[in-house]
Write a structure and sequence with these properties.
Length: 318
Amino acid sequence: MTRDLVTVIGGSGFIGRYVVRLLAKQKHRIRVAVRHPNEALFLKPMGDVGQVQLLPTNIRNAASVARAVDGADAVVNLVGILQPSGHEDFQSVHVNGAEAVAKAAAAAGVRRLVQLSAIGADRNAESAYASSKGEGEIAVRAAFPAATILRPSIVFGDEDGFFNRFARLACIPRLPLPLIGGGKTRFQPVYVCDVAEAVARAATQDAFAGQTFELGGPKVYSFREILELVLAEIRRDKMMLPVPFFAAKIGAFFTGILPNAPLTMDQVELLKHDNVVSPDARTLRDLGIDPTPAESIVGTYLERYRKQGQFSKPVEAA
C-alpha cells in the first residue's frame, strides 16, 4: 500500500516530535518543515533512511510554505507561540501564518489539512492568544473548508512547559507556589501521545474532514489540584500562596518584558477562564482514542525533581 506524504509544519516542537515519530512508525513519508533544519536532525532516526525529510520553512514566508506543501497528501500545521518574540507575534503566526498554510494547501491540491488550535479559541476573547487562535481558525476554514481543527487543553508529557515549570518552581527554597486567582481555574490536561494520535488520524483519514475536536484528558483539575499533584509526584512539601488576578497582572507587567517571561499579562487573562472540553464538543473518543490519565504519566518524568531523583522515598502521611 502506498503511504501518504505528510508535511508537518513545526515538526520539531514538543507536540511535533511525537507526531513525526507516530507517522514514521505507520510508514508514512514525512516532510518536516522547520525554520532551522539543523536543529531538527534528531527527527531523522525516527524513520527509515530517507523517510523523514527536513525542509527549511518560515510560516511567515508564503513562497517557503508553498514549497513545503507541494506534492503532499496531507499537511499538519503545529506552529504556535505562547508569547510574542522578535518578529513573531500572535497575528503573524496564529492568523497570517495559519491562513498562508491553508491557502497554499488548497492551491497545491492537498487532500487533508490539520490545524492545531487551542481550547478557548475565540476571535472575541480578551486574551490576545485566544483571540488570534480564533481568528486563525476562521481564516483556515475560509481557505480550506475541509480542514480538521484540533483544540487541545494543556498538553502534558516529558518535555512539557506546564507541569515541568511548576515542578521547577517547587524546588526553589522558600518560594511559595503562586495560586493565581485562588487556584480555581479548571484544566483538562491531555497526554501528548494522545494529541499526536489525534493529529495522525486526522491527517491520514478522510472521515474527520471539516470537523473540530476538543482534546482533553479523562479528568478535570482545578489549578490548585494540579499543583497538589505536582507536589505529590516530586515528594515535596510546599506552601501555596493565593494571588489575586489583579496582583498577578501587576507582577506580569514587569516580568513580561523579559525574554522567555515566566508569566505575561496575556497569560494571566487566559487563567481567568476554564480550559476544559465543551459539553457538546467532539472529543478524543470521537476520534477513537481513549484519553490517558495524567496520574499515570506525570510521575515518570517529574521524578527528576525529587530530592534524590528516582531513589526518593515516598512522603509518609502525617
